[in-house]
Design a protein that fits this description.
Blueprint lengths: L29 E5 L7 H16 L9 E6 L8 E7 L10 H15 L5 E5 L4 E7 H10 L13
Length: 156
């Protein structure tokens, strides 16, 4: 279970499949990948995630072929954290449900350790979740580089 959050319980060590809880289904065909940044600030990690959940609760969605990020703290600091989602679908918008973000955090904790950066890709959903340091995100989002798979999101 992700530290300091309510999340899905997992009975499988397989990083490509998670067991659902009462809050939602599993993220299908999901693969977790660790990135190079370790020991992200726990408070900022959880606050950026909470901002994403609040954004979703306001009825917001990620448009087809686009990405959306939530960063904490804002404005940016050296120890800031960004959570972002790439919606690689051509037609349908995507949500950022809390149960999905909880599963992403759980998968990355199991594979990469707590409070570390990484991505989770669901081929079936054509969706990528990522957690990175906000300075890296700001630099790359400014130039629209390296955020999403090549076949995926385009800059606004």
């Amino acid at each position: 279970m992700p530290q300091s959050t309510s999340a899905a319980n997992s009975t499988s060590e397989d990083q490509t499949r998670q067991v659902a809880d009462d809050e939602g289904p599993i993220i299908p065909e999901a693969t977790a990948t660790c990135l190079t940044w370790k020991n992200l600030t726990q408070q900022n990690f959880l606050a950026a995630k909470a901002r994403f959940v609040a954004w979703d609760h306001r009825g917001k969605t990620v448009s087809p072929g686009m990405w959306h990020a939530e960063i904490y703290p804002y404005p940016d600091t050296e120890d800031g954290v960004a959570w972002y989602i790439c919606n690689c679908k051509w037609v349908h918008p995507d949500h950022a449900r809390q149960w999905e973000l909880d599963q992403v955090q759980e998968m990355l904790e199991k594979k990469c350790g707590a409070w570390n950066s990484g991505t989770v890709l669901s081929e079936k959903w054509q969706k990528t979740y990522a957690i990175v340091p906000s300075p890296w995100f700001r630099k790359n989002s400014h130039y629209h580089e390296n955020l999403c798979p090549d076949h995926c999101a385009k800059p606004l």
